[in-house]
């Protein structure tokens, strides 16, 4: 079994499944294996859940990168293809009328689009970004207040200083994200995964992160130094 076939198997899919199917399978499995849904006192299940989440995250990320690579190669092939053979003028035609010079395309015209454009400081307030893939994007200081980011994939996204107040981040994936000084006031973070994220100085005042005493946000390995928690206390 090839490496990519194994990634499909991890996501319980057949090889060749569409990326939309990959994304949906990832979300389903991430929900099933979320450690907060398992007994806290069962270390065996907690360890198994952590391992499963690592596997499905890696599988989805590798299949996403493979798709991006294919798209870039396809784009390059379609834009750099050799020009079709043109009919050569006969000697008589050449003697009387030389073909007019054609404008050669500049190198800039053939540059493929950058896969991760800079979105820093952009205004996405109230925007519907549900299910979007924003992984690796630079969205520092962007305005995402009131935006719908539910089920959005934001692995390693840079949201430093971003305004996410009142945003819906239900089941959003923010693994290893840069969220320093981000504003989450009143945001819905239920089911979000912020494992390994840098949350230093982030503001969570009034954010929805719990059900009773049960924390419903995954914060494994996250850096919360100086963060303002929902109850107004500063995390030390």
TrEMBL record:
Residue ranges occupied by any J domain in the UniProt entry: 6-79
Record has Coiled coil as a keyword: yes
SUPFAM superfamilies in alphabetical order: Chaperone J-domain (SSF46565), Pentapeptide repeat-like (SSF141571)
Annotated coiled-coil segments of the chain: 42-73
SMART domains reported in the protein's UniProt record: DnaJ (SM00271)
Chain segments carrying region Disordered: 79-126
Keyword Manganese in annotation: no
Key words of the record: Coiled coil
CDD domains xref list: DnaJ
Biased composition (Polar residues): 95-109
Protein name: Molecular chaperone DnaJ
Organism: Brasilonema bromeliae SPC951
The organism's taxonomic lineage, starting at the top: Bacteria, Bacillati, Cyanobacteriota, Cyanophyceae, Nostocales
């Amino acid at each position: 079994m090839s490496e990519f076939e194994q990634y499909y198997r991890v996501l319980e899919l057949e090889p060749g499944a569409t990326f939309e199917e990959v994304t949906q399978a990832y979300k389903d499995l991430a929900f099933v294996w979320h450690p907060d849904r398992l007994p806290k006192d069962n270390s065996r299940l907690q360890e198994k859940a952590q391992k499963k989440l690592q596997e499905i995250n890696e599988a989805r990320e590798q299949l996403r990168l493979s798709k991006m690579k294919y798209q870039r190669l396809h784009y390059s092939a379609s834009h750099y293809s050799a020009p079709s053979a043109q009919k050569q003028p006969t000697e008589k035609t050449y003697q009387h009328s030389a073909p007019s010079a054609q404008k050669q395309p500049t190198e800039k015209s053939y540059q493929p689009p950058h896969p991760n454009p800079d979105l820093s400081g952009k205004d996405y307030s109230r925007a519907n970004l549900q299910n979007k893939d924003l992984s690796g994007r630079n969205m520092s200081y962007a305005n995402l207040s009131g935006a719908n980011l539910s089920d959005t994939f934001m692995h390693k996204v840079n949201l430093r200083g971003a305004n996410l107040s009142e945003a819906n981040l239900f089941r959003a994936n923010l693994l290893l994200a840069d969220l320093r000084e981000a504003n989450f006031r009143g945001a819905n973070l239920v089911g979000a995964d912020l494992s390994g994220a840098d949350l230093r100085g982030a503001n969570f005042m009034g954010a929805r992160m719990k059900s009773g005493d049960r924390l419903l946000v995954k914060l494994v390995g996250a850096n919360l130094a100086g963060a303002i928690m929902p109850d107004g206390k500063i995390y030390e």
